[in-house]
Amino acid sequence: MNIDVITLTDAQFALLSEDQIDKVRAAQIKKRALEEKLAEEKKKRKYALARAGIFRSCVYEKICEELTEAYDKKVTALREGLLFYLQFCAKPESAGGTSEPYADYSLSLQERVQVVKNYYENKYSSASERFTAFKADKTAPSYLGEYYSDVYDYFSQGL
Questions:
Q1: Which of 41, 48, 91, 152 lies 20 to 30 Å (CA to CA) from residue 106?
Q2: Is the full-model pTM beyond 0.90?
Q3: How many C-beta atoms surround the C-beta of residue 5 within 10 A?
Q4: Average per-residue pLDDT in the chain?
Q5: 116 falls in which pLDDT band (50, 70, 90)?
Q6: pLDDT per residue over 27-54, tens digit each?
Q7: Cβ-contact 143, 116 below 8 angstroms
Q8: Tell me, what DSSP letter sits at residue 108?
């Protein structure tokens, strides 16, 4: 199953518990169902407009925009709910990592990103040391969630 409801690396998926993986899988199944429903609804509207003889007008484009907007809102809510769940159940003890001094699980994911960046930038003066230490960090993948790859890229660009 291709997981695209959230973005996690294979290593991060490996750190998830069975319950967390079930939640991710359930969210992905819901997202796929929403995609199928969107495609079916667009198809129905297209045929209805064709039967009415007005398919070539801009009406279909407007309908598609509205349907896609509603779909995007539902997927965003689904994604945010999943990220919220993963944010508060990702603890170092359950992820198999060790707790780092920066780890404050009450912070939002965006705040966590900034805290981790500040921690490594203040602790290591050399970009290569900073990147090496971040790669070796066992807590960061579960602590940062889907933002881990962004922070990884951020530190790798400084080399």
A1: 152
A2: no
A3: 20
A4: 89
A5: very high
A6: 999 999 999 999 999 999 999 998 988 8
A7: yes
A8: -
- Specify the pLDDT at position 98: 55
Q: Distances from the Cα of 66 to the Cαs of 69, 73, 74, 76, 112, in angstroms?
A: 5, 11, 13, 15, 35
d(Cα 56, Cα 75) in Å, to the nearest integer?
29
Give me the pLDDT at residue 90, please: 63
Assess contact for 127 and 133: CB atoms under 8 A: no
Tokens of 77: 């809510």
Residue 95: what pLDDT?
Answer: 46
> What span, in angstroms and rounded, lies between the C-alpha atoms of 140 and 117?
11
Residue showing tokens 């699980």: 105
Asked if residue 101 lies in contact with residue 129, where contact means CB atoms within 8 angstroms, the answer is: no
Give the torsion sign (CA, 96, 156, 151, 117): positive
What DSSP letter does each residue of 30-69 carry, written as one string? HHHHHHHHHHHHHHHHHHHHHHHT-TTSTHHHHHHHHHHH
Specify whether the CB–CB gap between 24 and 14 falls below 8 A.
Answer: no
Inter-residue contact 7 to 146 (CB < 8 Å): yes
Burial of 105 (0-12, 13-18, 19+ CB in 10 A): middle
